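Structure ticket #2291
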Amino acid sequence: MAAVALASLRAAANHCLVAAWSFSDEQAAQVLTVTNGLRALFLPPPVAASAVQQTPTQLRPNLLQLLPTELLSEVLAHLDTYDLARLAATCRLLWRDAPTPPPRPMTLLRPMGPVEAELRRRASARGLRIVSCLPEGALSCVPYLLKRALRDALRREAPLAAGDGFSLFLDAEGRLLSCGSNIGAQGPHLLLGHGWGTDINPAVPRSIGPPTLVPSMQGRRIVSVAAGEHHCLALSCEGEVYSWGDGGYGSLGHAARGARAVPSRIESLSHIESIAAGPHWTSAAVDEVGRLFTWGRATSFIDRSFPSGLGYALDLQAESQLTPKRVDALSQERAVGVAFGDGFTLAVTDAGAVFSFGHSPLGALGHGSLVGTEVLPRRIEALTQTGRRFVARAASFVHAFALNEDGALYGWGHAQTNSHGRDEYTLHQVTAFVGQRVKSVDACSFCSCAITEKGELYTWGGGIWGILGHGDEEDQLAPKRVEGLNGVRVAATATCQTHTLVADEDGVVWAFGKVVGLGDPDTVPQERILEPIPIPSLRVRTSKSPDVLPFR
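Resolution: structure written out below.
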């Protein structure tokens, strides 16, 4: 009888497996209920209390496993990602998944432990892509998903981006919006993503305002946007990258140099986790296994005899890398983020190291010399010698910053924006933040800004157009708190040479500087906003309580 019953059970399971893809959500839930009931029939009987007293250390994991699934799920939901990782490391029984050789799909029909279920729930709640196959080198689901969760916790998604005369936003549903006009010489209407039929002549006046949904991107959930001087990038929750704008020097990654007024997917990129758009037709992307890809202009905008910061050697006569190319010099590292300066690039790895490459005339590479050229990525040893892991970076024009896991901010480069009022060829800790923790840092050609762990915004650098938000257009050499945002907990910033955008924890957007197209001109002046003003009817995607901060 037992053999017959087992054969019938296997036949039923195979039948369900074949029909699984056609199940509705309700039917799938019913199957899960039946499966849990069957599993309960074959679990070992509860351990006697006397036995627990005799060997508590050995039996405690078994007791955790015997908790009702609903109760265990509630416990795990209240742990941050670091504590969840520690629990998984000390209690293998909570995994309940057998090692899966790559690239076998991680089908949801196989037995799934509570740790994996919780990790998938968190990823889904944040709109992150849930992979169906393990990548090369991953042998089991839980360790892989835990590492992804820890990387996601360190990653700072960008819900807004600022460019010369235009702005990009992601609303609460991850939809892409844009606004602005062609006030600049480059014709920023190409960067708004809306398109005007076949007419993409930058000399034709175009404008959009207030922020409007980009028609071609409706139905796609975007998690990050990046604005360069001539082009833009958008990253979807599925890990796809879209580009639009001036395609000169191959900055759009489509193997062609032509302009595109409508976002188009870069087909050669997939499973991407972060993006960056540089000032002079350069672009970068990092995928889920830490591979760094760059493309665009290969030579310095100032002097064609110098590299532009792509991280690999090219024939400088060619001037361009038209499609994304992996930076092989970092093949032994796992990149987690990248930032472009004016002719140079910074990359941060998951080990906490910072690499720089390209050319800089004012010490922005961070290697201790005034003028530096590095075709291939070179580790910034002065940061390594601090003995701390670095988790974020920012670069623009000829200055740069790096942020470590303790929230300490280091800067180097040009005097006006590096916070010390003098050119720094080697790094220094930004003294204005000693005694408090910085959560994120951003920089543009004229100014820099940082958000502290308390949600306070500090800005410094050039004050033209009021981009510092201090109520005037004066330069500010040292970081100064933006008093107009007192009582507001800032979650994200985006700054450029004309204006600064700020999002608070409720998703409300504030703006100052030369604001264009952000609302009704009767209620939102179009230029020289010297102090932060909220933008009516605009909410972007931010989180009041992120899963975990890198600073604890």
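Closing remark: Residues 57-154 form one domain.
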